[in-house]
Amino acid sequence: MTDRISHWIDGKPVAGTGRTGDVYDPATGQVSAQVDFAGPAEVDQAVAAAAAALPGWRGTSLAGRTRVLFAFRELLQARKHELAKIVTSEHGKVESDAAGEVARAIENVEYACGAAQMLKGGFSENASTGVDVYSMAQPLGVVGVISPFNFPAMVPLWFVPNALACGNTVVLKPSEKDPSAALFIAELLAEAGLPSGAFNVLQGDKVAVDGLLAHPDVKAISFVGSTPIARYVYETGTSHGKRVQALGGAKNHMVVLPDADLDLAADAAVSAGFGSAGERCMAVSVVVAVEPIADDLVAKIADRMRKLRVGDGRKPSSEMGPLVTRAHHERVSSYVDTGVAEGAELVMDGRGVEADGANDGFWLGPTLFDRVTPSMAVYTDEIFGPVLSVARTPSFDDALALVNANPYGNGTAVFTGDGRAARRFQNEVEVGMVGVNVPIPVPVGYYSFGGWKDSLFGDTHAYGPEGFHFFTRTKVVTSRWPDTSHAGVNLGFPKNS
Ligand code: NAD
């Protein structure tokens, strides 16, 4: 009998009563568990628990709330290896990648521990004679977080710490492909002293998402996933009057100028192209080689790819794990056939890779296409796997125009030794997160994360200062204390002071 992965509502596991889905161990290809899929009744139950916990949690002092977050941070730090192993067992990424994910998650908890500073309002004394004006940032209420499969620990923790720090209560709907990390997080939050109901996990699929989007007691939605679903969540959530931030897909370009350090650029292309098997929204999927260096750069990238060890993420020798599910493996592999049919030059073919793991694992080795053009599906589509494309351009201006013509605008990077070129690139590129001689520019926890164009719907980025902004609404008070001495009360102040 396989394990059953349940919901977490009002401080305890709650078994589902309806549909379930398969969860895989991607390195063996076997079903490892069944996950419950919430129906409307379970959505109501989770939201009701969060609503019931709201007055107590938002009424808890700032010191009290941050004390829970400090304790949560310590527990995460102490048990980070366990969490990383959970991520690897359901997602497939190698444990060093999973450990990196957990480390970035902890960063966000640490940032949220600064809530007392972040939630200070403004105060203007004597804005008019005897009149003071001040602002306060108040929580929204019950907020929903809907996360993708590729960072089952980090993406929920992009939002949950700030949401809780601001005094909201939360219902998290994690990906049904790797749902266990969310339950581990729930257990640690409870152990850290978070009151029951302040954080709930609703397992499931579209039914659970639609339930949250329509629920009148859910005031805001933070979503991360693919662009079509992000657009749907944004439009549906806002049509129900909710505040929504919906982060979507990506097609990240890394531009390499002729004066770049090509070894540094090749290292970056391989680590950012194939880390987590390319299942990262900040993966590099297109290297834009500005001539005349393309031949040299492609050779250097291919050399490094040949040395990448593909295998079970639990083995310390593995550098790249399997894809998350059989269906995703089939989809990504089919793009290798598509690229060949479209006339791209297949430099390295990951199909039929010999992985250090079970035969039925969802393996696809690192794959490299050269001479990819914007009309090809391997260029236009987000493949979300270990398939890297090289597009060649004659000049810096052509490279910049190519990046800006792409409908996605999540991340990009430029590799160059020329500060003027780098400054022009960062100034003119229409992308939300930019690296200069840095491959994956995921901003640190005290900045915020978000793309432009089809990579983000809404106007607020995730975590950092914008996270605090998203999870609060501002109230401005204009106040006057008139002279009450006429009512017979004289506190001894001079008249009109
Ligand atoms: P996905 O869009 O398939 O799923 C995301 C979430 O939406 C999951 O919780 C899923 O259960 C739910 N969902 C799926 N289909 C739905 C539907 N029809 N209606 C309502 N809800 C639905 O994404 P994924 O495959 O889990 O994750 C990979 C995608 O996420 C990639 O496109 C990647 O670029 C993107 N991503 C973006 C960022 C970012 O910050 N911009 C970060 C991580 C991942």
TrEMBL record:
Gene3D superfamilies xref list: Aldehyde Dehydrogenase, Chain A, domain 1, Aldehyde Dehydrogenase, Chain A, domain 2
Root EC class: oxidoreductase
Coiled-coil parts of chain: none
Region spans: Disordered: 1-23
Record keyword Oxidoreductase present: yes
InterPro entries according to UniProt: Ald_DH/histidinol_DH, Ald_DH_C, Ald_DH_CS_CYS, Ald_DH_N, Aldehyde_DH_dom, MeMal-semiAld_DH
Residue span(s) of domain Aldehyde dehydrogenase: 17-477
Pfam families the record matches: Aldedh
Sorted UniProt keywords: NAD, Oxidoreductase
Basic and acidic residues composition-biased segments: 1-10
E.C. number: 1.2.1.27
UniProt-listed NCBIfam families: MMSDH
Designated name of the protein: methylmalonate-semialdehyde dehydrogenase (CoA acylating)
Species of the source: Amycolatopsis rubida
